[in-house]
Each structure stands twice: as structure tokens, then as C-alpha cells.
Amino acid sequence: MSLIARVVAVGFLGLSATLFGGYFVGRQIPFLEAPISIEAASALADGGSMHVVLRDASNRRYAIGVEGSLSVRASDFGVYVQPWFSFLPVPIYIRKKSEEEGALLAAVEAWSTQLAGAQPGAELLTQIAGVLRGRGA
User: Fold this and answer.
1) In terms of pTM, does the model score above 0.85?
2) Which side of the chain, N or C, has fewer Cβ within a 10 Å radius?
């Protein structure tokens, strides 16, 4: 095997290990320090899709969202997180009735109470908690 082929192979393995490890680390729900603010919030007119970007006291950002529509039962909505929203806005979907889903519900409910005053988008965070509860978290 030539030197170039070895370098490419090692680079590919390193990139694969980084992405694979990042996927599992990204599934962990972070501890966000109060006060928490809502940096951005949006809801689509499809009847179920929402996206909220949170920022904590340490200036960390964390995004959470729901994909749904009027033609899908709320219990079947997809829920995702984007732990590295500013660097790599790739969603990581949360399985229904999983341990992660229960942890995410607890975190969303805690974050809702730690918001820095009344903020636009706070109602979307409450709706996301409702979707998580409806999915059986």
C-alpha cells in the first residue's frame, strides 16, 4: 500500500471515528445554566413543526425541534436535537419512549422554568414538552 493510500485510509478512519463519537456524545442532554434565553424560535404553518434555539448563561447554544403536520398524529411527531447548531446543524432524532426522550422532557420542563423572564418563543418550548409527553416520554 502506498503512503498516500495509507494517509487517506487513516484520515478516513479518523473522520469516521470523530463523526461516530460525536453522534453519541451529541445524544446526551446538556445541563444549561440559568438564566436561559430563547435565541430563535419558529413554527411552520404545517401544524406541528417547531424549532427553538436556546442560549444559556455560559453562552452555549442548544437547539431542539419537532417535525409534524396536520396529517400526522401528534404522538408520531419526530423530535430532534441539534447540539452543535452553530457548527454543524445536523439533527439527531430521539426515539419514542426511550431513556433519552424522558431525559429530554425533564430538561425541557426545567429549561422552561429557568427562562429569563417572558420571552417570545416560550410557548413553543411548552408545546415541545407537550409533544414529548404525548409520545410517551
Assistant:
1) no
2) N
Tell me, letter by letter, the H, E, C secondary structure of 59-116.
CCEEEEEEECCCCCCHHHCEEEEECCCCCCCCCEEECCCCHHHHHHHHHHHHHHHCEC
Closest-CA residue to 33 (of 128, 110, 125): 110
Residue 100 corresponds to which cell in the numbers above? Answer: 433519552
- Strands 50-55 vs 92-94: parallel, antiparallel or unpaired: unpaired
Q: Would the CA dihedral through 86, 87, 88, 92 be positive or negative?
A: negative
Residue type, 66: V
CA distance 133 to 137: 5
**Tens place of pLDDT per residue across the chain (137 aa):** 688 878 877 787 777 776 666 555 555 677 677 788 899 999 888 777 999 999 888 888 889 999 988 888 878 889 998 877 667 777 888 889 888 888 889 888 988 888 877 788 888 988 899 999 988 75
